[in-house]
């Protein structure tokens, strides 16, 4: 069975402060670097991916470099994939994650964040990319390194989620989720 391994980037200063982080391009902090190395050690015992795709943001590119070093995946081609960039949270960028207005807006799936994207906008770019990966007969194992919002969208592609499950899903920084892709006829 084909599998897609999904890693959320390591921690940043904004993650530590628990604020909304979308398109602000900031680096990993020391703890985030350690999380990325640990994810690489966990992946080292698994089948090496035939391809690695990473968001263009600095924090994901740092994470993938540290993962590949720790896992011994240095020969695996890494492709920067713009469709894996984090959701644009518009005017909520930098807001506290527990901000009431942000929490309300987060539950309006078809509405764009003011000046940003809706979940539907994100699905329109992420789902076709996942379709391509699932149809790719040349690759059985693929690694994606991306962001929390994109991890949520990827999960909804593989697992049916009720609205509240979708909103509440949280993949911690530096962790790995593995999704099996059933064989196609």
Task: Describe what you observe in this structure.
The chain has 185 residues and is of the alpha/beta class. It has a single domain (2-181), classed as Rossmann fold (3-Layer(aba) Sandwich). It is 41% helix and 14% strand. It has helices at 13-17, 30-44, 58-71, 100-106, 119-135, 148-158, 163-168; strands at 2-8, 51-54, 78-80, 141-146, 176-181. A 5-stranded mixed beta sheet has the order 3-2-4-1-5. Strand 2 (51-54), helix 3 and strand 3 (78-80) form a beta-alpha-beta unit. Helix 2 (30-44) crosses helix 3 and helix 5 crosses helix 6. It is globular, with a radius of gyration of 16 Å.
In brief:
This protein is α/β, with parallel strands linked by helices and 185 residues long. 41% of the residues lie in helices and 14% in strands. A 5-stranded mixed sheet has the order 3-2-4-1-5.
Give helix % range.
40-55%
Give the termini distance in whole angstroms: 13 Å
CATH structural fold name: Rossmann fold
- State the order of secondary-structure elements, H for helix, E for strand: EHHEHEHHEHHE
Q: In the CATH hierarchy, what is the architecture at level 2?
A: 3-Layer(aba) Sandwich
Strand residue percentage: 5-15%
Enumerate the strands of the largest sheet in spatial order, edge to edge or round the barrel.
Answer: 3-2-4-1-5
Count of individual domains: 1
Structural class: alpha/beta
Mean pLDDT: 95
What coarse outline follows from CA principal-axis ratios? globular
* Radius of gyration from the alpha-carbon trace, in angstroms: 16 Å
Any idea what the CATH superfamily is called? Phosphoglycerate mutase-like
Q: Got a strand count?
A: 5
Uncertain spans? none
Could you give a short account of the major beta sheet? 5 strands, mixed
H/I helix tally:
7
């Amino acid at each position: 069975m084909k599998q897609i391994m999904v890693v959320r980037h390591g921690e940043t200063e904004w993650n530590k402060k628990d604020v909304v982080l979308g398109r602000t391009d900031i680096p990993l902090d020391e703890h985030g670097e350690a999380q990325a190395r640990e994810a690489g050690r966990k992946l080292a015992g698994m089948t090496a991916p035939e391809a690695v795709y990473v968001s263009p943001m600095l924090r994901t590119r740092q994470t993938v470099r540290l993962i590949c070093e720790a896992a011994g995946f240095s020969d695996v081609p890494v492709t920067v994939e713009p469709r894996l960039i984090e959701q644009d949270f518009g005017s909520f960028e930098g807001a506290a994650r527990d901000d009431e207005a942000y929490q309300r807006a987060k539950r309006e799936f078809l509405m764009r964040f003011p000046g940003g994207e809706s979940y539907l906008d994100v699905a329109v770019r992420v789902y076709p990319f996942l379709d391509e990966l699932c149809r790719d007969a040349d690759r059985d194992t693929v690694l994606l390194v991306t962001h929390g919002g994109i991890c949520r969208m990827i999960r909804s592609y593989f697992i049916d989620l009720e609205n509240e499950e979708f909103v509440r899903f949280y993949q911690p920084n530096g962790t790995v989720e593995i999704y099996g892709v059933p064989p196609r006829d």
